[in-house]
Predict the 3D structure of the following.
Amino acid sequence: MPRIAGTDIPDNKPVRISLRYIYGIGPSHSDKILKAADIDGQTRANKLTEDQLAQIANIIDGGYIVEGALRRAIGQNIARLRDIRCYRGDRHRRGLPVHGQRTKTNARTRKGRKKTVAGKKGVKGMK
Amino acid sequence: MPRSTKKGPYVDEKLYRKVEKLTQMDRREPIKTWARNCTIVPEFVGHTFLVHNGKIFNNVFVTEDMVGHKLGEFSITRMFRGHTTGTKAQRARGM
């Protein structure tokens, strides 16, 4: 199994698909990288030559932020928002949606699993 | 959709002039303002603003990291005191 960008090991799918297993590379980046490397996206990842792998790794190194570096960058951006005590930072701190979504209902991705409150309207089995 | 870059950031004229004046005099007293929609520009760094939230003026000391945000982002308009604990009956009995 080939290794690109640190620990990532894309398997025997077409390269344009397997590149997406790298954090920070999606469909669009994947195609752009392969075009720059002049590799057919349909070739299986395990059929790539050493040269081609090196080429891909080179392109990613020079111009794409992936994996740890990207995670760190995102974390820093959020930490900055928290530090300056702005509204968005506050939403991050409280684990609520940041982009102005409603929170009366839904918003479960950010809020986590439902916490049922006893005595609230609609909660049955109380008395 | 963000504001067109052609126009540059929106900065409240009056507030900007006031900041310049204070900087020239090398004074750093708090500036009371209602201009929540005013973008923080590098010139504001180091000044203190009292930003209205609809009811009171919140103290906002501008640091370098805040540049590019709006003044209103630092003066929250909502108050959330938390949810009550216990059932209605418990509360009625007086906690």
Remarks:
- Chain A has two domains: 3-64, 68-111.
- The helical segments of chain A are 15-18, 27-37, 50-61, 67-83, 87-94, 108-111.
- Residues 96 and 110 of chain A are 5 Å apart (CA to CA).
